[in-house]
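Please, structure for the following, as tokens.
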Amino acid sequence: MSGATVPARVTYTAKVRVSGGRGGMARSLTGTLRVDLTRPAQRGPDAPGTDPEELFAAGYAACFDSALAVAARQEGVRTGPTSVTAAVSLGPTDDGRYAIAVALTVAAPDCPQADLDRAVAAADRLCPYSNALRGNTAVTIRADGQQ
């Protein structure tokens, strides 16, 4: 991949094997993750399992919240308690392919809005998920701090 950013050194590699695609099973090779996968169109309020978009949302939200903690320290911002909600949308493009779009909502009710905005911008530069998606996937970030 020309132009791709490659880690200078690998600190961790996660391996997950999926069989059966969107209607199958995902298992981490460590054995700590084992989930049934369900197609989004077949999901109901009581349907078991999850889908790739939900798993991606969980990973991105967790990663961004951790990046926010690092960025806040680097920026000298006291955020107080934070949470990140990721909404991952899946749909067809005009040319018949499929794409995802992400909307992140960062909540830090004890943090002044200007400080939170600064920390969120820094977190967006640090977060590996943000860096992987930048320029290829629509990502919006809304920060809700102390007004």
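The radius of gyration is 17 Å. Helices lie at 52-75, 113-126, 128-133.
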